[in-house]
Amino acid sequence: MFSANDCITNSWFLSITTAVIIFCNLCYAFEENNGSFPEGFFFGASTSAYQIEGAWNIDGKGENIWDHFIHENPMRIVNNDNADVACDSYHKYKEDVFLAASLGFSAYRISISWTRILPSGYMGIVNEVGLKYYEDLIDEIVKYNMKAVVTLYHFDLPQQLQKDFGGWTNPKLIDIFVDYSRIVIERLEKVDYWITLNEPKVICNYGYGSGEIAPGLKYQEFECAKVVIMSHAAVYRMYKNEFPNRKAKMAINLDCEWFEPKTTSSKDIAAAQRILEFEIGIFAHPIFKGGWPKAVKERMEKRRLMENSAISQLPKLTEKEIEFINGTFDFLGVNHYVTQYAEDDSENNVGRKRNEINAGVLVTVDPPWNKNSLGSTVAMWGARNVFKWLKETYNNPEIFICEYGYSDNGTTLEDNERIRFSRMYLSAFHDAIYKDEVRIFGAMTWSLLDNFEWTSGYSSHFGLFTSIKMILTKRGFRRSQHSFSRS
Ligand code: NOJ
Description:
- By secondary structure, this protein is of the alpha/beta class.
- The chain is about 45% helix and about 15% strand.
- The chain is globular and about 55 Å long.
- It starts with a helix and ends in a 13-residue tail after the last helix.
- 1-deoxynojirimycin (NOJ) binds next to loops.
- 1-deoxynojirimycin binds near residues 198, 446 and 453.
């Protein structure tokens, strides 16, 4: 039986659903191919464990770096929000999967919470309840004939590993990540696509470089990049060696922003290329081509000289390591949200974000560009250009768009902006496929539900579905501490 709130929630579900179906199927005619995407193209929705599951200390789950970061520093999250309950998907996963299926999606992306399986992060206690939870969740996805896309690591490192080893900057993590991944892969036989790690740039640049997100450490982004990329390669190689009969494909998932040269000057063109290499190439180049990108190596050497330092911040990759990482992909996972301008600023060593200083680039935007509630700027031509660049730079890999999406601040129930943005993105993807012949085989929107948007808490809404509690909050009701519940 529905309570009054449930009724309101459900009618909201319906209006969004209707809108989404309309925008996906009816609204527009793309020029090519009668407006359709290729046969078998996957449409889906993406989520991640920490952002939706809640149940942070239930059924044997251990503490991870985000639990720790938030509980120790509640002020670092907008409105002091936390993800202790989040969307309560740990208990309501069947409802989530039903919602995704009800939109006609053919793929649903989740991530595994490492400490739900291995509470301390290490082998030792393997939490059967955690494994069973994900087994049941995947059964539910498969029941609706959706492809199960599963990320092994989406930002939530076991706190014990951070405490004992310093987390992703320590090469010891490589084997430990392989041990954890093996247990998960062994048990979850029905997965269709494995993502090893989500957005390594965010893990390293903001978790271990600027310190904005958990674990909140600084100045170690390049050590992190090496450990993360080696960990990806080690899991890929373990998977291919130990599970030769599995059909599921595996890849890393990179966040790929587009940087357009601010002017046609050769310096700005080089600057745009350089920041693309720093943001995407530092992870993609070792996997798709071998070794660090030349532009990154050159620039980091220049930075070393500018800082009068004996050692470069960029760790060396040995020939053996280069070979080990090279070729560890079945496709490329891409998250795309943002377009910005890049301008040469290579002589200036201060006053900008760390990654801009590292790359020697000044990043700006055009005021009229569309913005989401996080201030990220989106341009349709940028979305198209980034895929063309990926195709040309990495020898035309198959691409799965694991995330694209739009956030609002939750003050409206009308979904026109989300539809407008989604339309823009989908139209760009369509152009990339039919005009630029990029081999994109699926696109999953972020996100199914309004959820815990990291340091923005619940203030930015990316979901196709929202909850009555979030709506009420925006109308002046008191936000409960654990603010999200669908019903
Ligand atoms: C990418 C991340 O994978 C996801 O966790 C985040 O919520 C979205 N971007 C939106 O910022």
